[in-house]
C-alpha cells in the first residue's frame, strides 16, 4: 500500500532555496536522511525560487533538467527536500517516468524501517495512512469508473471510494488500539506520581546523542547510531540520584525541521512522556554549526505538544569534537544549573550531569529535629531506610532524639505516609 523502496536504490535529490527563511530546508540534512533510508544519492539538482511552481514545484525548465538526470543516471526515485502536493507529485512522475517522494514521505519511510515495538509500528502506520489518504488518486485513474458487470453490481462505489473507505476503517481501528496503549501509559504515569517518582525526559534534535547519553546514565544497551532517527520507540529506565532517590529516565524520538504534522499527531502518546516529565534534558550537539537553529526547532515542537512550560536543563553534548571545550556546569544568577557541557561518547562530564540533575530535582533540603517515643520504632526504621539521619541520641525515657536531613520530595512523601502523627514528633 505504501511507497516503500528497497535499500540500494539510486536517487536524484532536489533542493530548492527559497528567499523566505521559514521555507528553507537544509541540503546536508537531506543527504543524511537519504543515507539513513539506505538509498544512494547519485546526483543533486539545486535551484532557487521565490515561491513553488503550482504544476511541478520547480519551474518547467528545472523539471526537464531533473528528467534528464533521471535518464542519465538511470535513477529509481526522485527525492525532494520539500513537501509536495499530490498534484505536483503526479505531474513530476508523469514527466520523469520515475517515482517521486517528498521530504515527508522519506521521513515516514525511515520511521517505518526503524519502528520495533507494537506501539511504534501502529503510530508509523497511522501517519502513513493519513499521508496516503491525500494521494490515493495516483495509480488508480483507470479505476475511477464504478464497478459493473456480473457479480460486481451493488455497492455503486468507485475503486477510489472503496480504498478511501478501507483507509478510514483502518485508521479508526489503529486509533482504538493506540487509545488502549495511551491508557496503559497513563496508568503507569499515575502510579509513578502516586509514589512521587520524578521523571526526566531526554529531548533534542535527531542525532544529538540522546540514546548514547541514555546508555551512559542508565548503563543500558539501547540502540544508538550516528544516523537520523536511530531511536523511535520510547524507552524508560530507572536511575538512582543522590538526595532524590529512584528517578525514571525516558529516551524519546528526535525532532527535526518541519517535522510532519501527521507524525507529531501519531506520536502523541509517546510524546506524553515529555509533557508529563518533571524536567527535560535538552540534548544539543554543540559540534554542529547549526545547533542554535536546531534548538529553536526543538522548542517549536515542544510548544506544539504543550511541553514548553516543563523546566529544562540544556546538555551540550559532543564536546570532544569541539577544540578547547571542557566538561563544566553553567549556573544562572540564582545559582541554578542551566547548562552542562559533556561528551556522552567519551564518558566526559557524566558525573557533572548527575550533580546538576540532583540539584534541579531535589530542590530545597528539609532539616528537622524529631523527638521519637519508644513506640515509634517503625518510623525510626523508615528514617534509616531513607538514609537521612545525621545525628541520633537516646533520651531518658528510652526514646530517640534524631536530626534528619532529606529532600523536600522525601519529606512530603513521609508526611503522606505517616499522616499527622509525625507532626507531633517535630521538636522545636
Automatic annotation (TrEMBL):
It is found in: Cytoplasm. SUPFAM superfamilies: EF-G C-terminal domain-like, P-loop containing nucleoside triphosphate hydrolases. GO terms for molecular function: hydrolase activity. Keywords: Cytoplasm, GTP-binding, Hydrolase, Magnesium, Metal-binding, Nucleotide-binding. The keyword Nucleotidyltransferase does not apply. The keyword 4Fe-4S does not apply. InterPro entries: EFG_III/V, G_HFLX_dom, GTP-bd, GTP-bd_M, GTPase_HflX, GTPase_HflX_N, GTPase_HflX_N_sf, P-loop_NTPase. Residues 198-365 form the Hflx-type G domain. Gene3D superfamilies: 6.10.250.2860, GTPase HflX, N-terminal domain, P-loop containing nucleotide triphosphate hydrolases. GTPase that associates with the 50S ribosomal subunit and may have a role during protein synthesis or ribosome biogenesis. Belongs to the TRAFAC class OBG-HflX-like GTPase superfamily. HflX GTPase family. Monomer. Associates with the 50S ribosomal subunit. This is GTPase HflX. The gene is hflX.
